[in-house]
Integrase zinc-binding domain-containing protein
Amino acid sequence: MRGSRIIIPSCLRLELFDSIHKGHQGIGKCRERAKQYVWWPGLATQIADLVYKCSTCSHGSREIREPLISGGGGISITPLAGYWHRSLLF
C-alpha cells in the first residue's frame, strides 16, 4: 500500500489501464481516476504514453472541425448585459 492506494505489479498494469481508460476521456481523467485507488512508479507518465498511443483518442483529438460561426460572414456576436445574453449584429 502507498497511503490508501494499492501498489500494482507491472504484470497487471495494462489490464488495469484498460479499465481506467475505458471511456477515452483523456490523460487528465485517467490520471485522476487511477490516483484515487492505485499507484506504481511512473504512473502518470505511463498513462500519458498509453493515451497518446490510443487510436480512438488520437483520432478524436486530431479531427478538424469547422467553426459553428465563421468570422468572415459579416456577422458578429456582441455580449450584452449578462453573461448568457448574446446579440447578432448584421
Q: What stands out?
A: The beta strands are 6-7, 38-39, 76-79, 86-89. The first strand starts at residue 6 and ends at 7. The CA atoms of residues 57 and 63 lie 10 Å apart. The chain is about 40% helix and 15% strand.
